């Protein structure tokens, strides 16, 4: 007889065809939950899974804008408001050509459980567009963002849905969207978007939060084994905010990051990545990582970003994008005696890679726990906005570190309670699910 999670998953695939990323995210969670339903059959009786895999609301809209040549361009905009049982929908906006409803649903579904693990009162949502900001002028990005927000503003609010940034959406894009929201609503609702500029409602440490949080939770796992980042060799994919600030925190804790990447390839610097160079190339010049080798003669550039996992390292932190680390990459990491893999991006390891790492007893922390620092600090930004207050970097950073340490304790304890000690994938899925499911029961059929 097919068990309850399997029956629900078959229904998800049937009702959402041609959305492999969403299927992957749902399957990964549901596979962990069989032990939960053995203990709590009431969840099946109340149809919790059928409700939790279906978004509360899906919004798709056209985004017309005028480029610098005076030609009209049209993109698609998306917002998936997945689950609000714990609080207003919370999740980033992604601007990238790969965006379609399946990607946004996968990200929104992950966000439900990630947000639950933070302990903050926030639900799960996600959004974005197939617009590509790369190569666009500031004027083109501004006109697109204003058009995008002209529709999105109908559906969001400080107590309803609070978007943030994601891939392709940084401080520039958030600023343009906030300005348009304020213009239309005639109201300075600071809490409607997070990732804002520091001069107008943003939070200190938000830029660093996802990368710092990733390192904090990996450090906690290392402490569990009487170890630390000190003198460890670390490989980090990506070179955006998550990668840059994970690198910064690893270096502060005594580790040596030897490689970072972008979509064009990776740089390997055996002397250790020089972070000032990477920050200037990526944050100021908006350039490509291959420019790094022009200034550092001992560094090497390889035009194959997926090959970064062939590098010998103690700790691997995939921070670029979904499904970037596959089974062959996982085998390379195992062969090189990696001790911990922490997901800085959303679902960067394929199911095969996760299986190989876990079977090899490699410490593995899934993204819904490991990269929760960004959304946790966004929630702290919402708190500051609600209080009309601004906290010091040190205060926000201390709260972030405590949240990440608490997440590690929660997911490791839950894994043990449900007979899966050391399986932090199961621990994260079960802990997040229980919090959401119990709230759904308490609030009735919603």
From TrEMBL:
InterPro entries: Aminoacid_DH-like_N_sf, Glu/Leu/Phe/Val/Trp_DH, Glu/Leu/Phe/Val/Trp_DH_C, Glu/Leu/Phe/Val/Trp_DH_dimer, Glu_DH, Glu_Leu_Phe_Val_DH, NAD(P)-bd_dom_sf, NAD_bind_Glu_DH. Keywords: NAD, Nucleotide-binding, Oxidoreductase. The active site is at 126 (proton donor). The keyword NAD applies. NAD(+) binds at residues 210, 241. It holds the Pfam family ELFV_dehydrog. The keyword Nucleotidyltransferase does not apply. SMART domains: ELFV_dehydrog. Substrate binds at residues 90, 111, 114, 165, 378. GO terms for cellular component: cytosol. One of its GO terms (molecular function) is glutamate dehydrogenase (NADP+) activity. Belongs to the Glu/Leu/Phe/Val dehydrogenases family. This is Glutamate dehydrogenase. It comes from Orenia marismortui.
């Amino acid at each position: 007889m097919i068990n309850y999670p399997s029956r629900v998953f078959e229904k998800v695939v049937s009702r959402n065809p041609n959305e492999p990323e969403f299927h992957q995210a749902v399957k990964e969670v549901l596979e962990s939950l069989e032990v939960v339903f053995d203990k709590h059959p009431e969840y099946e009786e109340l149809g919790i899974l059928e409700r939790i895999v279906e978004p509360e609301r899906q919004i798709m809209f056209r985004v017309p804008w005028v480029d610098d040549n005076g030609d009209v361009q049209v993109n698609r905009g998306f917002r998936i408001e997945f689950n609000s049982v714990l609080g207003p929908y919370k999740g980033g906006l992604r601007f990238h050509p790969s965006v379609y409803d399946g990607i946004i649903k996968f990200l929104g579904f992950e966000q439900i459980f990630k947000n639950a693990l933070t302990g903050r009162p926030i639900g799960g949502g996600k959004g974005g567009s197939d617009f590509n900001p790369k190569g666009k002028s500031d004027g083109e990005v501004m006109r697109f963002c204003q058009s995008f927000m002209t529709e999105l503003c109908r559906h969001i609010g400080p107590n309803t849905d609070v978007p943030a940034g994601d891939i392709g959406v940084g401080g520039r894009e958030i600023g343009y969207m906030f300005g348009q929201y304020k213009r239309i609503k005639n109201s300075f609702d600071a809490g409607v978007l997070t990732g804002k500029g520091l001069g107008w409602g943003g939070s200190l440490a938000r830029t660093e939060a996802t990368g710092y949080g990733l390192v904090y939770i990996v450090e906690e796992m290392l402490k569990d084994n009487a170890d630390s980042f000190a003198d460890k060799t670390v490989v980090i994919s990506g070179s955006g905010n998550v990668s840059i600030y994970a690198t910064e925190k690893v270096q502060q804790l005594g580790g040596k990051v030897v490689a970072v990447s972008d979509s064009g390839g990776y740089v390997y610097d055996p002397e250790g990545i020089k972070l000032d160079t990477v920050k200037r190339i990526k944050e100021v010049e908006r350039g490509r990582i291959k420019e790094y080798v022009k200034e550092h003669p001992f560094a090497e550039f390889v035009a194959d970003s997926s090959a970064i996992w062939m590098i010998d390292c103690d700790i691997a932190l995939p921070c670029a994008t979904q499904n970037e680390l596959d089974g062959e990459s996982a085998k390379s990491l195992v062969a090189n005696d990696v001790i911990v893999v922490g997901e800085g991006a959303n679902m960067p390891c394929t199911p095969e890679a996760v299986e190989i790492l876990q079977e090899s007893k490699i410490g593995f922390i899934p993204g819904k726990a490991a990269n929760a620092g960004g959304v946790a600090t966004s929630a702290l930004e919402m708190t500051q906005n609600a209080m009309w207050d601004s906290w010091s970097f040190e205060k926000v950073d201390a709260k972030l570190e405590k949240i990440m340490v608490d997440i590690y304790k929660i997911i490791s304890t839950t894994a043990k309670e449900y007979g899966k000690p050391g399986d932090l994938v199961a621990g994260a899925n079960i802990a997040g699910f229980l919090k959401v499911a119990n709230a759904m029961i308490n609030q009735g059929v919603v």
